[in-house]
Design a protein that fits this description.
Layout lengths: L1 E6 L8 E6 L7 E10 L2 H7 L16 E8 L11 E4 L2 E3 L5 H4 L11 E2 L19 E5 L4 E2 L6 H4 L5 H11 L7 E5 L3 H12 L3 E6 L5 H7 L3 E4 L3 H5 L5 E6 L8 H4 L2 E9 L12 H4 L4 E4 L5 H14 L5 E5 L3 H9 L6 E5 L7
Parallel strand pairs: 10-11, 10-13, 11-12, 13-14, 14-15, 16-17
Antiparallel strand pairs: 1-2, 3-4, 3-8, 3-17, 4-5, 5-9, 6-7
Helix pairs in contact: 4-5, 4-10
Bound molecules: NADP nicotinamide-adenine-dinucleotide phosphate and zinc ion (2 copies).
One zinc ion binds next to helix 2.
Amino acid sequence: MQTPAYAAHNATTPLVPFHMQRRDPGPHDVQIAIHYCGVCHTDVHISRNEWGGTTYPCVPGHEIMGKVVKVGARVKKFREGDPAGVGCMVDSCRACDSCKEDLEQFCEKGTVFSYNSPDSHLGGMTYGGYSGSIVVDEAFVLQVPKHLDLAAAAPLLCAGITTYSPLRQFPVVAGQKVGIVGLGGLGHMGVKLAKAFGARVVVFTTSPNKITDALRLGADEVVLSGNEREMNQHLNSCHLIIDTVSAHHDINAYLALLKRGGTLTQVGVPADPLSVQVGNLVFARRNFNGSLIGGIKETQEMLDFCGTHNITADIELIPIQKINEAYDRLMKNDVKYRFVIDMASLEKG
Ligand code: NAP
Ligand code: ZN
Ligand code: ZN
């Protein structure tokens, strides 16, 4: 079936209206009418081919929230009318060691991401959530707590799980000190989630105009990362730091803030390499690792956790016609704190 969408056609021109195909739902598939889609900084990286490997046309979007409109004959978890979410993945091999351990994001045969991955059903590449509808195997569709606002819950599907997973894997326990670097889409979810884990939360930001918000979102302290005196007050004190920064920056300043044995988890993915001053790791047995979203099981756990704790994102709802402006504002760190596209605007072209 045809669905309207917005697509990038190359790395340098704006996204424009586009028409694309979705498959007819098979026995295990759920067809979802997309009501909302969050705008992740990854959408900018991939639309603009900043990481290399983008195939055009590219329909971004992996914080997909909507309602089920049709289910295949063998679907068990969903019924017509249910709220349903799709995050960064739509399939995986389901047989490799990673898949068997509920870590489909690391599928050894290649995770099928929601966009810019080979599409085994229709050929070509998968197309994401900047579109009117999507058809996904129910194994990769998330159940959304019914009392959460659908628009504000959309960012949980990437920004939420990407910051929840490092907290869960560390694992953070009440009373520990967690640093969040960068207060954007991921960072503001990291603050809310770390707080709900009972952590003492410190936000490191480059933006003085975000200090009040950081405290309102739940941070116990806010540090302007350019201020050496303020940074020095946190030396050797953090159990875990989650770095969400999308651009080149000095991670050594943050490694030095970890306690002995502490961990800096990099979730932001700057296009250029970051350099590690090895002494920062060696002399305090510190850890530096990365983390990619979370598996489907962990994503469902995160949504249920957010349901219990009433956690959603702080969003600015935009019509799809403003998507290019939103990308430009993301590049200027000007988002409070996640753009979400209202898909009702799509029909207008
Ligand atoms: P975002 O909303 O644009 O937030 C990024 C924040 O980083 C900015 O708000 C800013 O915070 C800070 N920042 C930006 N440029 C900076 C610079 N030059 N120096 C220091 N700080 C800077 O982006 P997002 O959607 O949260 O995504 C962040 C990154 O995570 C992107 O690279 C994205 O691709 C990646 N990502 C990774 C995963 C994963 O699974 N690992 C999942 C989703 C996204 P302040 O204004 O507070 O300084
Ligand atoms: Zn994302
Ligand atoms: Zn696999």
